[in-house]
User: Fold this.
Amino acid sequence: MKQTATTEKTTCYHCGDDCLTPTYFVEEKQFCCQGCKSVYEVLSASKLCSYYSYNDHPGANRANINHRFDYLNEPDIVSELIDYKDDNITIITLYIPQIHCSSCLWLLEQLNKMNPAIHYSRVDFLKKQLIVRFNHHQMNLQQLVELLNNIGYEPAISLQDIIKKQNAPEKDNLVQKIAVAGFCFGNVMLLSFPEYFGLSVYEQTFKHFFGWINILFSLPVVLYCGRGYFISAWQNLRIKKLNIDFPLALGIGVLFIRSIVDVALINDAGFTDTLCGLVFFLLIGKYVQKKTYYHISFERDYRSFFPVAVNVLTEDREKPVPLAQLQTGHRIIIRHNEIIPADAILLKGQAMIDFSFVTGESIVVNKTLGEIIYAGGRQTGEAIELEVVKSVSQSYLTQLWNNEAFTRKTDKSAQTFNEKISKYFTVALLIIAFGALLFWLPFDFRRGLAAFTAVLIVACPCALALSTPFTMAAALSIFDRNLFYLKNTRVVEHMAGIDTIVMDKTGTITNGDANGVELNGELTVRQQQLIYSACVNSIHPLSRMICEHLGEMQRMAVTSYSEFAGKGIVATINGHHLKIGSGNLVFGYFAATSGLTAIHILIDGRYLGYFSIKHNYREGMENLAGLNSIYDMYLLSGDQDHERKDLLPFFGSPANLHFNQSPQGKLDFIRSLQEKGKKVMMIGDGLNDSGALKQSDLGIAVTDNVNNFSPGSDAIMDGRAFKKLPSFLRFSKDTVNVIHFSFLISLTYNLVGLSYAVTGKLSPLIAAILMPLSTVTIISFTTLATHFLAKKRNLL
Assistant:
């Protein structure tokens, strides 16, 4: 007897496509093509096969491999794409359209295990962006892109700066799913009307026929439109987590199975109308949520730029220009301790750039004239002139602000209110649902199923999960509108928990008004020109006040320049050696003056007198006195204590005023408060206070029309918004109260709904409508309440 060979149809272990040939086998695993087989071999060699535990077939099909990346060896093209490059390191942001699940995120953050030339890789899941830092001596950009292509994640590369302009949401099939679900829901409802209105004896045969047609209409709803809920629930169960998609997937599955049983065995109409309605309303809710989040993201990226400006040279005069208006070709001046906001060419001056904000390594790099200096570097010497060659990327500054080097450990462990509550909510929901099923099962099987499905639908925790992000997002936009820029939504909740406020003095509670500057001594025009040429390199408030007092003068050539935090400036200008600053710097010891802040002057070893500075306090300082009853208020200043009497009413007690503090002393003082259990908010100017800002539980940098960007802080406050500080603090507490109240609303709704659902008499269709309705109610309440409270605090 002739035997006939049969081929069993199998699926690819990597991508899940059908295997049309048995050619590609590795370790008893079959693959559809050489590409998928190669990806598996790469992962296996790197001991990264746990990638497949996140999903059965998480990879993209690799059948069509096309080597199209030779152009990435061209230096001119590479320079247009990268974010940063030095002697060893290159940093680039790539847009990866294939990112779609947790397995993608996990694999792409393990690239350093595949190639040791890659130092780290981080994924922005929402924007589908991958940030990679690699050693370009061991791997070039073409090899990096080919590696990503080989594992199924080919970057979308465009020379029109696609990476930083990519803010439109990735096109998906959500709209198509809504269309399919809506079409099926409408037809199922139409075919269900005879059942609703009652069928005569002669029309009973149509009942069975309509029931099976409705089952057919529900198939695409379950298998296509609702597929995402089953995938999400299964992926989270595999890693032993429960998310809000689990009860939804369970409800969809139970309704579908019950409808088939009713139609096939009981000759009943089933619940296909409820099933299609549930999925349709869920998808609409998801679409509204997605559009809302996109709108919020758009506002943060483009409308709410940081309150920093850069000085642009126009006809040999400096003019502060907002970063959003900085253009290619602009000639800018960057002073000591300022961050370079855009890629630029060095035109004048000695550039000593600290790239620690970009690379994490605090090594000063010298740059030569004509060399490109990348955005994110901080100048540590004299003022330099640059010509902008790339426009400012706001998303890049956001990336810099959220650099790992400036992420607090507390941020990683801290949980929001909803994160603490939601994980218990799903468990309680499942207990109630199965409890209702088991209670009614001995008496009425159908009523038990009705109760079970109604509980799963009516008590869905979607509304609870959405209350925090929507409330915080609304609060964030209100803060932005009032020139107070927070790093992320978590900062709002941290601000509400603060019980201690620590403030710097110069540049924080005082402003740089030159009217308070007086020269005590005799200076020639040339000596004034030397002092101006030294102070113009600094962004410290006192240096700016002295420059403004002297007026616009011609700058002399700077041979050497050093600025010491909390002390002053040492420079060699046009052959003259200058020391300008505190008595400790100029004399080597503390020098008492007549009750005013004194900036001493020493030129070529000869003492020429000092500038006495009387500080003018910011508008709204009187509002701080009212905070004494709520918060512990402290002042940390590097100045002398001659203003102690004036400041006492604002800080309550002489023991709360601390003068002659070094930057390290400020940091140590905040740490001592934290050791006592205090939640400390530090407000400083971001210069001498950078260590204290980072050490505090909440750091706020105050800035006045200068490029004083401080990545170590949690928020940046424009000096004009300082008077609103009490309102900001009260509004943060109001925001948290809105979240708590929205939780009570959601809980009340669920208790009322559950009281009917467990009886088995609540119509699943009504429950399916009430569920998205509750979500809309919560979102509306949080948004309206947040804006109402903002008006109450005079923030709108």
Residues 1-7, 160-170, 409-413 have pLDDT under 50 and may be disordered. The radius of gyration is 33 Å. The longest strand covers residues 606-613. The chain has five domains: 10-54, 70-157, 302-402, 441-510+618-796, 517-613.
